[in-house]
From TrEMBL:
Residues passing through the membrane, by range: 21-45, 65-87, 94-119, 125-146, 158-190, 202-223, 275-295, 302-327, 339-356, 363-382
Protein name per Swiss-Prot or TrEMBL: ChrA protein
Keywords annotated in UniProt: Cell membrane, Membrane, Transmembrane, Transmembrane helix
PANTHER family: CHROMATE ION TRANSPORTER (EUROFUNG)
InterPro entries: Chr_Tranpt_l_chain, Chromate_transpt
Name of a matching Pfam family: Chromate_transp
Segments forming a coiled coil: none
Main location: membrane
Protein source organism: Paenibacillus helianthi
Record's bilayer topology term: Multi-pass membrane protein
Family, per entry: Belongs to the chromate ion transporter (CHR) (TC 2.A.51) family.
Subcellular location: Cell membrane
Length: 404
């Protein structure tokens, strides 16, 4: 009888873990099909789906995870998604969350590489409508996170100063320095606050974390050295895209000049095809780093796309998995919590700055653009319609405005 009960309990645990993995896959795949607008907008989509609707994580934990991923090199929004998947369903959950969020845009961009080379879609009305969708999504994220993370004048001041500096200083490491300065200010002002908040359930041991961090640095050092003696094109592709994913801070558009230097001077991709692929990337949902799939396909077909995509995202995996097991101890330390209080306020400021530039400045070009953005915001924030409805409405609105 006891054996039967044990077998029943083990089966229940298996079914529970399998159900969690399927849930992560379904939600992340939906986000991968509907998350337009770049990394800042993705954080808004994640906040709406994972935090507001499903409550997989509390507001403070989400903000802390965003702050951690902003500090790490690589695609910040993808790293946040991986982290949420790990919290929900372990290491395999993180992998599945990344696959669901990433595969739709990789498949679409590989199709662009084979079927739509040189076709200019950057000025299409529906693409402009999707940029306006991103404005509404980020506006909702700024408002929602601001209410939670900047409740007093000290944190409002930090957020506004962070936004002002982010808008006036566009250095590659500017965002990292802003967050670091906000952490120092938060440590000075809020360090006496008691630690609070639930621990993130991280089912990854510290030995695994240390291994991932060591592997990250080992690959970063050894791949360029071995490239001179390994003649395989696939090895060179992996090295180029791994370094690009390892050395970019802020993610998103910041990676484009790094990729251009890797693929255009080498003759792998022409400048015209590079720009055509960049235009196509704006038309698909998901992380901008999936541009690597297009470039890899242009270079060496399907296998090139697989190698380039794996290479550019592998650093994100290694760094997130390496940092998360240490995160609960750091974030619940009173001093660290004080620093995170300032950092979280700065994250709101950085989101506010991104709402203006590049989103507002590239999407809101005339009164009709503002009108559409306002309508979409009301649909999202007050009517609480699902994001895919907002995406379709924005694309349709953008197409309609072409005739007005």
């Amino acid at each position: 009888m006891e054996v039967k009960r044990q077998r029943s309990a083990e089966a229940g645990r298996t079914r529970g873990k399998g159900a969690d993995l399927l849930e992560v896959l379904g939600v992340s795949l939906k986000l991968g099909l509907t998350s337009f607008g770049g990394p800042i907008a993705h954080l808004g989509y994640f906040h709406n789906e994972y935090i507001r609707r499903r409550k997989w994580m509390d507001e403070r934990s989400y903000a802390d995870l965003v702050a951690l991923c902003q500090f790490l090199p690589g695609p910040a929004s993808s790293q946040v998604g991986i982290g949420i998947g790990v919290v929900r369903a372990g290491l395999l959950g993180g992998i599945i969350a990344w696959l669901g969020f990433t595969l739709p845009s990789v498949i679409a961009l590989v199709a662009f590489a084979f079927l739509l080379q040189g076709f200019d879609i950057s000025g299409a009305g529906w693409i402009h409508g999707l940029k306006i969708v991103a404005v509404a999504i980020v506006a909702q994220a700024v408002l929602g996170m601001g209410q939670k993370l900047t409740p007093d004048r000290g944190r409002v001041t930090i957020a506004v100063m962070a936004a002002a500096i982010a808008l006036s200083w566009h250095a590659a490491y500017g965002q990292i320095l802003i967050l670091a300065a906000a952490g120092v200010i938060g440590l000075a002002i809020y360090r006496t606050k008691p630690a609070k908040g639930p621990d993130l359930p991280i089912a990854i041991g510290r030995p695994v974390a240390v291994f991932c961090l060591a592997l990250f640095f080992l690959l970063l050092i050894l791949l360029p050295l071995l490239r001179t003696s390994v003649e395989a094109r696939g090895f060179a592709i992996f090295d180029s895209f791994y370094r690009s994913g390892s050395l970019v801070f802020g993610g998103g558009h910041v990676v484009l000049p790094l990729l251009e230097r890797e693929v255009v001077p080498t003759g792998w991709v022409s400048r015209e095809d590079f720009l055509a692929g960049y235009g196509a990337t704006q038309a698909v949902p998901g992380p901008l780093f999936t541009f690597a799939g297009y470039l890899g396909a242009m270079t060496s077909g399907i296998w090139g796309a697989v190698i380039a995509t794996a290479g550019i995202f592998l650093p994100a995996f290694l760094l997130v998995i390496g940092a998360l097991p240490f995160w609960n101890g750091w974030r619940n330390n009173p001093k660290v919590q004080g620093a995170l209080t300032g950092i979280n306020a700065a994250v709101v400021g950085i989101l506010l700055a991104a709402l203006y530039d590049p989103l507002w400045t590239t999407a809101i070009l005339k009164p009709l653009d503002f009108a559409l953005a306002a309508i979409l915001f009301v649909m999202l924030f007050f009517w609480k319609l699902p994001p895919w409805v907002i995406v379709l409405a924005g694309a349709a609105g953008g197409m309609l405005m072409e005739f007005m």
